[in-house]
Write a structure and sequence with these properties.
heterodimer; A: mainly alpha; B: alpha/beta; D-Maltodextrin-Binding Protein, domain 2; globular
């Protein structure tokens, strides 16, 4: 009986790193990694060297010194004596505000455009096609500037609301005003609100928190009622009428809370140079919001259209054969399946919308590029630090948006076994 | 966009090697002076229909080019917004900055900008439509104010309103043109910046009499040409070019009589200035007759002032603080000796 001797254990030789295909790819990768690290190291070292040659250093201490400038739109309290850090936060919140508003509006418009573009109505389909091509093929900056120019040039200035021979007048029973400096609407106020009792010790508005909490609880209870109705229906085949309960548990507690807090509206009033009081949507916000949403909606519309077209025709024919109406087919058959195709590209549209908010400075909207990357950078001369921080902030926002949307995507995805 | 120049500057900081020889050699090798000017303020720096730049700040660039290269036209103008100017200077994209830039402590020390002197004593003012019926800046409580971002005016404005217990609604803009457009559309009530620029802009409005400048001047704005800190010789050249313009006015040397005086003058001060006596030019590595070329380029300080922003121009700014010290103003040059 012959036994096969195991092959002699080869001794590892250095030359194998190049000539042996088993090791070659590792060699190349390690070499490339080393070169990359060396390149990054050279860049960092060179930067520090050049900075010190120019008599500068990398120091983030400026963030805690007094900013000294005024910001026109602020979601948290801020004044010229606040720090640069505070100014950056104000800017960040403004960025997030316009990004959020933009994403919501772009989604709504985009969905309608995408569906209507597939309409059998020739005129509607062509109009939507025109809209998509118009917005997709002109740079966003131009749309922003155009929207702003229209708002500033065509709308009346506050001055024109004054006097006997006023050429402009307030709208909706004198409660709102549209001017070339912004849109003023009544502001909900609470005369006996929690904020009076708590004396502003919380960072957030306690009234809004309380209302949100009650609203959330109402929604939860309403959902429980629906589940109970479902159970009864599946048991007895008869569905109890619950709509008044379901609406009631949401609406009544909120109304009670409003009454308890002393709800009233604060109306804008023309005083001095401007309207005072009420809630003001600055023109820069409106212009940026509109332009960003309309521009991104054109892309989302195309994504929605492609998603719908990706649903096999048999699905629609099957639904029609079951006797479902067109609206119901769209809602229950096409959209749930189309969503799986739609969501990933829509995530990247949200991301680009968020990043595009940095064009805000074109209309003087004080986002984080305007505060940290604009005035702070210019007043302190800390270019490198500010740009690094800005990049970090945008990276963080984008990764957060993308993570959130990926979770949602995982939920609507087909569960495969 | 506006960030691009900053990003370029950053790139320069990140990848460029150490600086080479002095600025003077660099400019001479290039054969042209790169001068940072405004994006267009009539009177100070603005291109005409043929693309040739004119103005008070432009005159300063041409004077330095005349001193260093012997040719006042050998200037490459690089327009800068108020946001991009310091990055451009720091990155070496421009050799000098002549763009109504205020000399301040932090710019001098922290931003590494070296100011060569003050060629215009200015102050911040307010331009407002007469229709609003406002006669004093103290009545501006609640007004919407157009303000250029990244300027000292922005900080002064916040300080002024805070000191006087008033509030305002800032509309940040990038350029003067944008601010004027917003002012004309009534989307801001007031435009606040250096009063010299307000004068210049008011003169170019279609209906200048419908607008006026409020009497309050809320800040000191000494404007001057600037270079990057670190090259002493280059800084001295720009500084003494400005001083040569001032000294020429003081001694009565004009663009008309400079060659005549260079040949015939017996005044030792004039002879030292024009290089016919002494070795002053060589001390800065400049030709002996550099000041002659500077003065024949655009005239002395007074001529330059009058022709661009003063009495011979549509803007018509008074000399005021910018008169020579001998006439009760602040303009004063150290002696050429």
């Amino acid at each position: 009986m012959t036994t096969r001797a195991s092959p002699p254990r080869e001794r590892f030789r250095i030359s194998q790193l190049i000539y042996d295909t088993r090791y070659r790819s590792y060699t190349i990768q390690v070499f490339a990694l080393f070169m990359f690290a060396a390149f990054v190291g050279w860049l960092v070292n060179n930067t520090l060297q050049n900075l010190s040659n120019a008599g500068k250093d990398l120091d983030f201490g400026f963030l805690f010194s007094t900013a000294g400038y005024e910001i026109n739109q602020r979601l948290v309290s801020y004044g010229p004596d606040s720090s640069h850090l505070r100014a950056s936060i104000v800017g960040l919140l403004n960025t997030l505000l316009v990004a959020l508003l933009g994403c919501v509006m772009a989604t709504v418009i985009g969905t309608f455009v995408g569906i209507l573009r597939l309409s059998k109505n020739w005129l509607i389909a062509r109009l939507m096609g025109l809209y998509v091509e118009m917005f997709r093929n002109v740079p966003l900056l131009l749309w922003i500037l155009l929207t702003m120019a229209v708002l500033t040039e065509l709308l009346p200035s506050p001055r024109e609301f004054r006097g006997e021979s006023a050429t402009a007048s307030m709208m909706l029973n004198d409660t709102s005003a549209i001017t070339n400096r912004g849109v003023y609407v009544p502001l909900p106020q609470f005369s006996r609100g929690l904020d009076k009792a708590l004396d502003g010790s919380l960072g957030l508005n306690p009234n809004a928190l309380a209302i949100l909490f009650v609203l959330g609880a109402g929604l939860y209870v309403s959902q429980r009622i629906k589940l109970r109705a479902d159970r009864i229906q599946s048991k007895s085949g008869e569905r109890p009428v619950t709509w008044f309960w379901r609406t009631g548990v949401i609406v009544v507690p909120v109304l009670v809370l409003f009454f308890a807090f002393g709800f009233h509206l604060e109306y804008p009033e023309l005083k001095g140079f401007n309207f005072i009081g009420g809630l003001r949507f600055r023109n820069s916000l409106i212009a940026l919001w509109l332009a960003l949403s309309l521009y991104t909606a054109a892309f989302i519309g195309e994504v929605v259209r492609s998603g719908i077209m990706a649903v096999p025709k048999g699905q629609i024919e099957g639904a029609e054969a079951l006797g479902l109406r067109p609206a119901r087919i769209m809602r229950s058959v096409i959209l749930p399946q189309a969503l799986r195709v739609i969501i990933p590209p829509v995530i990247s549209q949200y991301l680009s919308l968020t990043k595009n908010t940095s064009l805000a400075i074109a209309v003087g909207y004080m986002d984080i590029t305007g505060t940290l990357g604009g005035i702070t950078m210019n007043q302190t001369g800390r270019e490198l630090e500010c740009v690094l921080l800005l990049m970090l902030v945008y990276l963080a926002i984008s990764l957060t948006v993308s993570a959130g949307m990926n979770v949602y995507n995982a939920r609507v995805n087909l569960v495969e076994r | 966009m506006k960030l691009s120049s900053t990003v370029l500057a950053l790139l320069a900081v990140i990848v460029s090697g150490p600086a080479l020889a002095g600025k003077l050699d660099e400019v001479r090798n290039r054969g042209a002076l790169k001068c940072g000017v405004s994006t267009g303020v009539v009177g100070f720096s603005a291109p005409d229909a043929g693309g040739v730049w004119h103005g008070f700040d432009v005159g300063m660039c041409r004077a330095v080019a005349a001193a260093t290269l012997g040719d006042p036209m050998a200037v490459e103008f690089v327009p800068q917004t108020s946001k991009t100017r310091f990055s451009a200077l720091a990155s070496g994209e421009i050799d000098m900055l002549s763009r109504t830039t205020t000399w301040t402590y932090s710019r001098d020390s922290d931003l590494n900008v070296e100011f060569a002197g003050v060629n215009f004593y200015d102050g911040q003012g307010f331009l407002i439509a007469n229709a609003l019926g406002v006669s004093s800046a103290k009545d501006l409580n609640g007004a919407t104010v157009c303000i250029k971002t990244g300027t000292t005016s922005e900080l002064n404005l916040a300080d002024y309103f805070r000191t006087n217990g008033m509030s305002f609604d800032p509309v940040p803009v990038e350029t003067d043109a944008e601010a004027i457009q917003q002012l004309l559309a009534n989307s801001c009530d007031v435009f606040s910046t250096d009063s010299s620029k307000l004068n210049a802009h008011r003169a170019t409005l279609e209906n200048p009499d419908a607008y006026s400048i409020l009497p309050e001047i809320i800040s000191k704005e000494p404007l001057g040409p600037a270079v990057l800190h670190g090259d002493q010789q280059w800084g001295d050249i720009v500084r003494w070019t400005l001083n040569a313009l001032l000294t020429a006015e003081e001694l009565g040397v004009t663009s008309a009589n400079v060659s005549d005086l260079a040949a015939n003058s017996t005044n030792p001060e004039i002879k030292r200035l024009l290089g016919t006596e002494g070795e002053l030019g060589a001390m800065l590595d400049l030709p002996a007759d550099w000041a002659q070329k500077v003065i024949s380029a655009g005239g002395n300080y007074g001529e330059l002032f009058d022709n661009t922003i003063g009495s011979n121009s549509p803007i018509g700014i008074e000399r005021g603080l910018n008169a020579l010290w001998t006439n009760g103003g602040l303009q004063y040059s150290p002696p050429f000796r």
